[in-house]
Amino acid sequence: MQHLEITDLCKTYKNGVKALDNVSLTISSGMFGLLGPNGAGKSSLMRTLATLQQPDSGQISFDGINVLQHPEQLRMQLGYLPQDFGVYPRVSALDLLDHMAVLKGVLNKKQRKEQVAALLQQTNLYTERKRAVSSFSGGMRQRFGIAQALLGDPKLIIVDEPTAGLDPLERNRFHDLLSEIGENIVVLLSTHIVEDVHDLCSEMAILAGGKVILKGKPASLTQQLDGMIWKKIVPKSALPVYQQTLDVISTRLTGGQITVHAISPTQPAEGFESFYPELEDVYFSALFGKQPEVKGGVIC
Ligand SMILES: Nc1ncnc2c1ncn2[C@@H]1O[C@H](COP(=O)(O)OP(=O)(O)OP(=O)(O)O)[C@@H](O)[C@H]1O
């Protein structure tokens, strides 16, 4: 059982933006989802955990390693898929993965050949192994990104916004691939897509403005909003009134009509129906500071 402990991490960039504001999280083996809007600080946290940048203060420990003091020890156990990763033009998937395996310390040639072939199979890229990665589609590229992250048998995998820009089929493929990764390692998935966390993660946290604003199990967080989320289809012209008078957490356009989701302990207005909340309702109610007293999760 691996264990990642993040304590009071702070980071302010030179331009004065406070990207991480006392972030503390305890993350155990399995898939952990870090959800947050653009600019929340997710990549700053991922890069810090991947030892690519230093925080101003705070602690990180992984499986007994003091990560900020001994970044090289973490790097031996780390697989990282950054938000954008560059590839050399014209280098085939096979050659690039082999090269990356050497950099990762897989020096035995036979072992490396086997590992590279196995990862290309696992990511469904084996038949395309001689093609240049630079010619891959977005989905294939992300699968290649997972293959390189899995080199060297890492115990901590960090995946930053992996499904942004993928079509639904490739996103499902990518989800299947992530869900196959061992349960005995820590997989940290950063995303602004609520379905990614819903589909994959047993634990999650929401980051906004550099702060962790909610954490818990997705199922408990939705359950504790049961009976409090209401919806109604309304004409577009009536929307401003609802927004001014109710705790509206989201509006969705479906088939040209607007469905309003509101949070309230009782029916907020005539015509609103209660329904079992979705993770998106948890996310939006947290972002707008409308979460009620929490039992299964922690408001931070
Ligand atoms: N190198 C940097 N120098 C200055 N400001 C930065 C730097 N990197 C990020 N920021 C700022 O820090 C804040 C957090 O950015 P970060 O990229 O960590 O957020 P994010 O949640 O990953 O967002 P996104 O999904 O848009 O990448 C933003 O306001 C961003 O503009």
From TrEMBL:
Residues 4-234 form the ABC transporter domain. The keyword Nucleotide-binding applies. Pfam families: ABC_tran. It comes from the Bacteria. PROSITE patterns: ABC_TRANSPORTER_1, ABC_TRANSPORTER_2. GO terms for molecular function: ATP binding. Keywords: ATP-binding, Nucleotide-binding, Transport. Gene3D superfamilies: P-loop containing nucleotide triphosphate hydrolases. Coiled coil: none annotated. The keyword Nucleus does not apply. Belongs to the ABC transporter superfamily. This is ABC transporter ATP-binding protein. It comes from Terrimonas ginsenosidimutans.
